[in-house]
Amino acid sequence: MSAAPRPGRFGAFGGRYVPEALIPALEELDEARQKAMLDPEFTDELERLHRTYTGRPSIITEVPRFAAHAGGARVILKREDLNHTGSHKINNVLAQCLLTQRMGKRRVIAETGAGQHGVATATAAALMGLECTVYMGKVDTERQALNVARMRILGAEVVAVEHGSATLKDAINEALRDWVTNVERTHYVLGTVTGPHPFPEMVRDFHAIIGEEARQQVLDLTGRLPDAVVACVGGGSNAMGIFHRFVDDAAVRLVGVEAGGEGIEGGRHAARFASAEPGVLHGAMSYLMQDGEGQTLETHSVSAGLDYPSVGPEHAHLRDTGRAQYRYATDEEAMEAFRLLCRTEGIIPALESAHALAGALEIGRELGPDGLVLVNLSGRGDKDMHTAARWFGLVEDEGGSAPAPGAVVTGGAEDVGAASVADGVQA
Amino acid sequence: MTAVPADATGATGATGATDRGVGEVLAACRREGRAALVGYLSVGYPDVATSIRAMETMCAAGVDVVEVGMPYSDPLMDGPVIQRAAAEALANGVGVDHVFAATEAVRAAGVPPLVMSYWNLVLRRGVPTYAADLAAAGGAGLITPDLVPDEAQEWIAASDEHGLDRVFLVAPSSTPERISRVTEATRGFVYAASTMGVTGARATVGGTAEDLVRRTREHTSTPVCVGLGVSTGEQAAQIASFADGVIVGSALVSCLMDVEVEQGLERLDALTRELAAGVRAGVRAGVSASGAEADR
User: Fold this and answer.
1) Which of B79, B153, B168 shows the shortest C-beta gap to A1?
2) Where in the sequence is the domain holding B162, given as residue range(s)?
3) pLDDT score, position A139
4) Domain for residue A278, yes or no?
5) How far is CA A414 from CA A177, A369, A381, B132, in A?
6) Looking at the complex, does the CB of residue A15 fall below 8 Å from at least one CB of chain B?
7) Residues from chain A contacting residue B168 (CB–CB below 8 Å)
8) How far apart are CA A329 and CA A269, in angstroms?
9) Domain interval for residue A180
10) Residue B198: closest C-alpha in chain A
11) Nearest C-alpha of chain B: how many angstroms from A338?
12) Does some domain include residue A423?
């Protein structure tokens, strides 16, 4: 590999591994976003939308009843779940749709896993009068049926992708095929910090507002910086968004939490950093779950949004340089953290964000009572009610709402004392 | 290295062609005053043995270059036909070693084999290792649909070392700057995508391709072959009137789908002959800028 720095590289990672046909569109996009970031007409309009449409700044919430299970450390949530459309995804989407207009394009396409990015894109397209097509793996359309309905109600066409593993990676393949065919009038609103340059850098910059707000909010509340900033990592956009402003704060630990699925041993997981080696997928060099020949492996997570075989290239760089650490939470650990936040704080998190909460419980215990942990609560869990209800045996069947016979439905029982904290999150 | 005659050196001649590459075959087609026919099949579809027989069938029926396609889990430049072939071949256990078995067989049939592979499969084996193995197995070079010259330093070095062709693509969206960059890095032929989009048969492959070939010739004397969408002898003749080669993929792969093996090979033989007649029927009006007239 050449030692000369190349654009769009984070150390050895990133780059532009795409068909030549897309290079002009990537160059046009790179130029447009660089100009836009310096143009008050763009930045003012984006700021206005953040304030009057999304509801920014999102608040922070300290969660002491939850924190009692985290070794007594202080835990603060950055509430991206309160944004319009219910997750952080809207930050990036509003900016990219404004860019779409500036580039004179009339149509946007997007991929979606959990459906949050698809819903956000359909929302912004409705707001700005753009045509919108969203690609979603067939498996995901089934486990996130509510979000499919939301996108369609917002006027988007939702295409269920049936080939391959019929999840997020296949949705991206199909979106890229659409883009290469219709690039002249279409912008691909990529939803995370991966893909070919300039997407990883651009999407990070559009989410950096999360960390900028949170850093100041935590300072205002506590008078100091957090000891650790924790976020879940699928592609890694919410994590890069909250990490970015803290990268230069050397004393602040950055911790990404991947999906451990059913555990690393059996291979049914999406913990790239726990097992994978570098490779190229969807335009970027990064850590990639692949077999010995370079074919992409199928991944597993209870959370559709983390069910992806690669990870944003900047995360790969932060990991290899030691600036950020990555761990994983299994489906079971994430579901327990999900339940715990619901029961102790009355906040229903997205299953993706529940992985970050599971990580925060561990880190809090490592830090002890003097610790201060900031968690990016990247989305809300309404979309996950179906999965959660089945997991906890709260419904009899797919359509039902009555508790299953024998299901344990307790109320308010999570208020444990410090003595039981060491035993973990089981209540 | 024993499988290949005259492969002891990777030295490039005055034209940039290598002993191993497709340059000599394309030059011979030029001397005949016709375009070359490049035929694609996926290794391992419907199974490894049949796919190699199918490639040999194409060689006997008149292809000038075989494009040996390696199935990949995420073929983002391919349409439904090749996606399906790739998925079934992978499910049947096709591997990169089978590519080299195919290139040996095609070379033994007297036709240069160019491998079409998505980049991660090359990267995973190690670029220098892949290049050495490909050269040892009689390969002419690589077509890389998701690798642009900007990311190809390692491949350019390895292909130089082993005298392999490196076929990069241009597309209707390519600017003059991009065409210049791509053609400078290319050896063998430039792959001109006839339309914006993925592989698969199309009713028409009209004027966009001709314009792209013309724009490409402003930057290079390397042959320019046109692919994407060609499925009939008539279309091949049309493309042959302005390009140095016609690349056909999905239509050939389709011959092997949903039929008994022998019947599939018959269909493949018939279509290859139709296409081979097509590239010979094209009126070569538009090639003067290529320098072809010197050979005729």
Assistant:
1) B153
2) 18-281
3) 87
4) yes
5) 49, 19, 19, 63
6) yes
7) 20
8) 10
9) 11-383
10) A177
11) 33
12) no
Element (H, E) at B38: strand B36-42
The answer as to whether B9 is a domain residue is no
ipTM: 0.91
Query: Domain containing B129 — which CATH number?
Result: 3.20.20.70
Render each residue's pLDDT in chain B as its tens digit; 296 residues.
Answer: 333 334 334 444 444 667 789 999 999 999 999 999 999 999 999 999 999 999 999 999 999 999 999 999 999 999 999 999 999 999 999 999 999 999 999 999 999 999 999 999 999 999 999 999 999 999 999 999 999 999 999 999 999 999 999 999 999 999 999 999 999 999 999 999 998 888 887 877 767 999 999 999 999 999 999 999 999 999 999 999 999 999 999 999 999 999 999 999 999 999 999 999 999 997 654 443 344 433 33
A183 close contact with B: CB closer than 8 A: yes
Query: A6 contacts in B (CB within 8 Å)?
Result: 150
Q: Which of A24, A169, A181 lies nearest to residue B74, judging by beta carbons?
A: A169
Per DSSP, B247 falls in state E
Biggest CA-to-CA distance, chain B? 49
Choose, out of A288, A293, A298, A308, the residue to mutate when testing the contact with B (most B CBs < 10 Å). A293
Task: Please tell me what DSSP assigns to residue A58.
Answer: P
Q: Across the interface, do B197 and A180 touch by the CB < 8 Å criterion?
A: yes
Asked if B72 and A295 come within 8 Å (Cβ–Cβ), the reply is yes
Its pTM stands at 0.92
Which residues on chain B are in Cβ contact (under 8 Å) with A170? Answer: 74
In a domain? residue A137: yes
Domain count, chain A: 1
Q: How far, in Å, CA of B69 to CA of A266, rounded?
A: 32
Residue pair A207/A174 in contact (Cβ under 8 Å)? The answer is no
Q: Is B11 exposed, middle or buried (0-12, 13-18, 19+ CB in 10 A)?
A: exposed
Is B13 inside any structural domain? no
- β-partners of residue A232 are A257
Known catalytic residues of A are 89, 111, 378
Residue B10 falls inside a structural domain:
no
Partner B contacted by A376 (CB < 8 A)? no
Task: Decide if A395 is inside a domain.
Answer: no
Residues of A with Cβ-Cβ distance to B174 under 8 angstroms: 20-21, 23-24
Smallest Cβ distance to B95: which of A19, A22, A293? A293
**Token output for A105:** 């394009």
DSSP symbols for A323-382: SEEEEEEEHHHHHHHHHHHHHHHS--B-HHHHHHHHHHHHHHHHH-TT-EEEEEE-BBSG
Candidate from B120, B175, B196 with C-beta closest to A181: B196
Q: How confident is the model at residue A412 (pLDDT cuts 50, 70, 90)?
A: very low
Among residues B111, B16, B97, which one has the least CA distance to residue B54?
B111
In this predicted model, what pLDDT tens digit does every residue of A342-376 receive, in sequence order?
999 999 999 999 999 999 999 999 999 999 999 99
Number of domains making up chain B: 1
User: Is the per-residue pLDDT at A66 higher than 80?
Assistant: yes
pLDDT in tens, A143-169: 788 899 999 999 999 999 998 788 889
* Residue among A16, A21, A283 whose CB faces B193 most closely: A21
- From the CA of A22, how many Å to the nearest CA of chain B? 8
Asked if A248 has any chain B CB less than 8 Å from its own CB, the reply is no
Q: Would you say A205 and A60 are in contact if contact means Cβ atoms under 8 Å apart?
A: no
Q: How many angstroms separate the CA of residue B152 from the nearest CA in chain A?
A: 9
Tokens representing A47?
């700021």
With contacts defined as CB-CB under 8 Å, which chain B residues touch A294? 96, 120-125
Q: What is the pLDDT of residues A181-193, one digit of tens each?
A: 999 999 999 999 9
